């Protein structure tokens, strides 16, 4: 077997036994951290007027927060109208144990709904907060006397619309930063630069504990990699239509059981990631180039079509947006800054 870099496989101990389903049993490191945060919806709600700074402060402390009236109801209705045909035609794969068979989902929502791309993805608060947690800027030495600087903005990672029907059970608590192999250590206070993704959960219909609201564990973004999650520590992201729940991907969360008789819970969940990381969804394969040409430059940047400086994601040595918007006064060079070293 080819040896690869691992931060964790050497931590587990494989025991010589299996469970009733035939899975191997392992021991994992124990971590003695009993911190819990008992919070109310008011604690998690960002006060008016909502600013990126207020959202950032809530996320640092709790890992998640509510922004009420994030988008108008008519915008939510349009997103739902755009994806409804895809929801109605969805057929769940029979071997998916992670998402319930009673849950319908529409991947690539931002290339199936132009409204989602322009109003949800390119929302100024999403862009500002995502760049605060995920954006990067650095300088690099080039040769003897040159220093260059570059900026890498946050980009779209995934955008999926979920419909949870009555009869759905609790989803297993999980972290979405597993996609990028993010291994976090215990933190007493939040440290910037440790996040690989940030999510926003938009309610397209009223979301309650009874119809399947997302449950999440406040403060779990500060936990060690091996601390186990428990349902007694969760809070429920109950939302009115148009409300939004911001959440760091390093927080434990999961969909909830829909115990109602006839209520459909529909949310659109967007995740942003670092501009230097591979996107979870491949939204480019199969999407006509005409669709991208129809979008604003702000939406194209957020989708990840702007080059990450330096030299990441270029097309023919140019920023891809210059291909899509040749008539616009758009310029994004390989380097943001050029300096000379003092002698």
TrEMBL record:
InterPro entries: Phytyl_CoA_dOase-like. Pfam families: PhyH (PF05721). One of its GO terms (molecular function) is dioxygenase activity. Its cofactor is Fe cation. Keywords: Dioxygenase, Iron, Metal-binding, Oxidoreductase. Homodimer. Belongs to the PhyH family. This is Uncharacterized protein. It comes from [Candida] arabinofermentans NRRL YB-2248.
